[in-house]
Amino acid sequence: MRRRAFALVILLLILLAAFAPPSFAVTPDDWDADNPGALVPEHLYAQTAVLIDFETGDVLFDKDSQVRMYPASTTKIMTVLLALESDIALDEEVTIPDVAQNVPSDSSLVPVYAGEVMTFEDLLYGTMLCSGNDGANAIAYLVAGSTDAFVNMMNERAAEIGCTNTHFANAHGYHDETHYSTAYDLALIAQTAMQNETFRQIVSTARYTMAPTVNRGAYNITNTAEMVNPDSGYYYEGCIGIKTGFHSRAGHCFVGAVSRDGVSMISVVLRSTSESSNTTAKWWDTRKLFEYGFAQYEPYLLTDLFDASSRSINTVTIPNAASDDAQRGLLEVRLTQLSNGEYTRRIRSGSEGLAEALADFAARTEITYNEDLRAPIDEGEIIGTLTYTAPDGEVITGMLSAERAVAARPEYATVYDVLPFLIPLEPFFSSGAVWYVLVALAILIVALLILRARRRAARNRRRAAIYNAKRRAYNYAEAERRRTETQRQQRERQRRQAAPRQDPRRRPPRR
């Protein structure tokens, strides 16, 4: 019985497996070019990859970007960055040291030769565009005095940039077990390097001609980064470099950069290899990352940014608007007649991305309104101009027109209406000279008031002195009068006391 039940269960499982809907693993071929925003890690050939925003460093896409990998010749990004940060001038003639020849036999070469004299600029172009290991060694010796000292500089600079899982063992990237990095760390290094204008110019150059030397004539070189070459089938509009890399342990690698429609990104793909092609997978992976990145940004015309800006940008207050104006003179303006109406900025989706874009728009915008802007104003009337300087340097101008009509409040009589004889003096009153006159008059008035106050004080002091003198004289005379009266009264009392006393009952004799 148990055996029969077990057999039935097995049969049921077999039937379920047979009739279950088929499931397929996601592969790079499943990537939909019409829906680039749906990119998933399985759509990439690369073992690890990352895409970051060049301006902010935000990670837009990640595929195991913190896994330690071999960077191969993408190492030369750091090598050339340190060269540009050194004291050696681009036009300085340098002599290629012997150490330039100390590279493995299967190395990629510029080539340069020991004792050869060339400009430092030519050496940098040759090293970067040709991925020359010999050139990298020459740079290391010229900058630091030895390759070991230069490697120490590379590791110190990586730590300064913020790399936490990177260690360089040489200047060119040929395989070494202790020479490693990650996709994310390489993106940080590339982000720093691309802030150097000379570095950007070098890595975005499709072709370059090195000047002739005693060892050879003029030498034409082509950038190994095919995505910057318009003649290549892998050209990508807006791609500005930066560096390829390859060896058997690292696989095919590419650190890329793109800048278009106001969006700049850095991409890294490491060990990018397909079954059908070992060389082209890195270009497809990079294209997928770029397309995904641009899908994360929404297109905005300048008029969209202007309308979404704060009131300090898209409004103006009319000082003499009518008292019954519903907006109290606040006038919204429209941006019209742009010199490049098709110009588009791509902004990261979300409120934070828009806020950053609006702040950047305000910083790049200059608004000038007509002199003495006053009502009445008609709807659509041109009242000012706007000048916008794009990140790539393009200057775009436009006109500012009134969104609505604004009536003026009644004009009141001016001093010139009441005193027309002052009209000839109007230029003087409206000029800056009137302020100097007013200041001088104010100083004169203050001086006169001070003088008047002093004279009044002196006069009061004289009056007080006369009054006090008279009062003292009066007091003296009064004192004398009282003293004389007192003496008289005393004499009168003495006289009365000296006279004989009479009986009051006795009548005086009749005469």
TrEMBL record:
Annotated Basic and acidic residues bias: 478-492, 502-511
A GO term, aspect molecular function: serine-type D-Ala-D-Ala carboxypeptidase activity
GO biological process: cell wall organization; peptidoglycan biosynthetic process; proteolysis; regulation of cell shape
Signal peptide feature range: 1-25
KW rRNA-binding (keyword) present: no
Binding site for substrate: 243
Transmembrane segment boundaries: 433-453
Top-level taxon of origin: Bacteria
Residue ranges constituting the Peptidase S11 D-alanyl-D-alanine carboxypeptidase A N-terminal domain according to the UniProt record: 43-271
Annotated active site: 73 (acyl-ester intermediate), 76 (proton acceptor), 131
Keywords per UniProt: Carboxypeptidase, Cell shape, Cell wall biogenesis/degradation, Hydrolase, Membrane, Peptidoglycan synthesis, Protease, Signal, Transmembrane, Transmembrane helix
Region (Disordered): 478-511
Family, per entry: Belongs to the peptidase S11 family.
PANTHER family: D-ALANYL-D-ALANINE CARBOXYPEPTIDASE, D-ALANYL-D-ALANINE CARBOXYPEPTIDASE DACB
Role of this protein: Removes C-terminal D-alanyl residues from sugar-peptide cell wall precursors.
Protein name: D-alanyl-D-alanine carboxypeptidase
Organism of this sequence: Candidatus Pullichristensenella stercorigallinarum
